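ARCHIVE CARD
CATEGORY: sequence design from structure
SOURCE FIELD: tokenized fold
FIELD CONTENT:
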């Protein structure tokens, strides 16, 4: 993966406006899109792709400006994820997850912690990953006096192997070694002793996300990097309550971007390779075939409607970032319902678009050389992250009964 623009980035200032960040994301997407099919088919570790994200500055988008970051909004971050996803779903997932994890100290940490970690991250161009799976108590945390010791195993860890900093999460043990109801987020260098990130992610989609398992063998984290703790006492602010909502909107923009990329790739194929059906009387080009036009009309309409809903959800969540102190339980619940609706819509539309494009392109488009099924494999794999049926139930319960979702790790 080479491009002249990558070299010019070194001599140009960092983007200073949302439009400039989106332009930079478009340059990255162009580079990724040039050989996306070949790279996805080959699999392996996304080392070059991570280097591209770092050289472009996209990893510093949310960081403080005086440390070399972009001080950009989450609205811009989501748009960047969406744009990169149009070219490469795996790289967009790595980037979107990075934005969440680099922001986690601001959500859960003390002011000293998040200012220090955000500054160091922007200055050094770190990529963040995480070994977090709140469904299981598979990692325990022991108080070791001046620090904490994490032990256990995580089945999934998107980006862990290629990250610079890793978020660990586990259940704190009491003095007798029994699990408590307190969970701890700790920040550690990925090359810390006791951490082993495995290259065992071999799923049908999101093949370049390094989402394999992690062994955590007595990894020590100082109390200063245990998020939200001061003198071993944790303070959790209401702002932490939108962690899941931020993450779910990363998913939503990922799905939307992949679907947009699938439709664009299909349209390019149709214009250059697809023939009109033999019964299309008086039509000499596939671009004039009435049924092909109808297929693109239906898929395009679904995407436009989804984009409008997603943009509304992004704008509503940005208001919380702009005024974290104004967050109430009711406001959080209403946002959760809106984001759940956006996820339902983005899931349905991304699966429909990435599947139905073959009806418009024709049988030859299924040839392995085009690798156009990668869009479907990516969204089919990731949309199983947590059941969309439960999002539908949340929207229905609010619509019918006026109830808001209980805050949790998935809602």
């Amino acid at each position: 993966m080479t491009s002249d623009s990558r070299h010019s980035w070194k001599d140009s200032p960092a983007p200073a406006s949302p439009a400039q960040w989106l332009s930079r994301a478009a340059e990255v997407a162009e580079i990724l899109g040039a050989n996306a099919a070949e790279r996805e088919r080959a699999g392996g570790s996304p080392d070059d792709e991570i280097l591209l994200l770092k050289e472009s500055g996209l990893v510093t988008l949310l960081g403080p400006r005086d440390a070399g970051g972009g001080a950009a909004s989450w609205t811009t971050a989501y748009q960047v994820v969406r744009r990169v996803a149009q070219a490469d779903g795996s790289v967009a997932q790595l980037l979107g997850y990075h934005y969440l994890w680099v922001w986690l100290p601001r959500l859960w940490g003390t002011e000293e912690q998040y200012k220090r970690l955000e500054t160091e991250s922007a200055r050094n161009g770190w990529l963040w990953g995480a070994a977090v799976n709140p469904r299981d108590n598979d990692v325990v945390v022991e108080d070791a006096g001046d620090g904490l010791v994490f032990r256990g195993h995580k089945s999934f860890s998107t980006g862990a192997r290629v990250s610079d900093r890793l978020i660990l999460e586990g259940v704190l043990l009491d003095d007798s070694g029994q699990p408590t109801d307190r969970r701890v987020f700790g920040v550690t260098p990925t090359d810390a002793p006791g951490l082993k990130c495995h290259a065992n992610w071999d799923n049908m989609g999101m093949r370049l996300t390094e989402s394999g398992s992690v062994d955590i063998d007595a990894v020590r984290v100082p109390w200063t990097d245990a998020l939200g703790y001061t003198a071993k006492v944790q303070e959790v602010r209401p702002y932490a309550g939108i962690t899941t909502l931020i993450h779910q909107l990363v998913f939503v923009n990922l799905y939307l971007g992949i679907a947009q990329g699938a439709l664009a790739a299909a349209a390019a194929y149709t214009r250059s390779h697809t023939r009109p059906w033999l019964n299309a009387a008086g039509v000499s080009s596939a671009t004039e075939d009435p049924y092909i036009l109808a297929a693109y009309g239906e898929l395009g309409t679904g995407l436009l409607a989804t984009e409008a809903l997603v943009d509304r959800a992004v704008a509503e969540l940005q208001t919380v970032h702009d005024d974290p102190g104004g967050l109430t339980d009711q406001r959080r619940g209403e946002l959760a319902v809106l984001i759940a609706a956006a996820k339902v819509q983005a899931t349905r539309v991304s699966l429909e678009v990435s599947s139905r494009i073959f009806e418009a392109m024709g049988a030859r488009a299924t040839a392995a050389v085009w690798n156009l099924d990668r869009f479907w494999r990516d969204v089919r794999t990731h949309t199983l992250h947590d059941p969309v049926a439960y999002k539908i139930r949340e929207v229905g319960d609010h619509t019918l009964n006026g109830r808001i979702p209980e805050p949790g790790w998935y809602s």
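CARD ANNOTATION: The mean pLDDT is 95. The chain has twelve helices and nine strands.
SHELF: design records, drawer C
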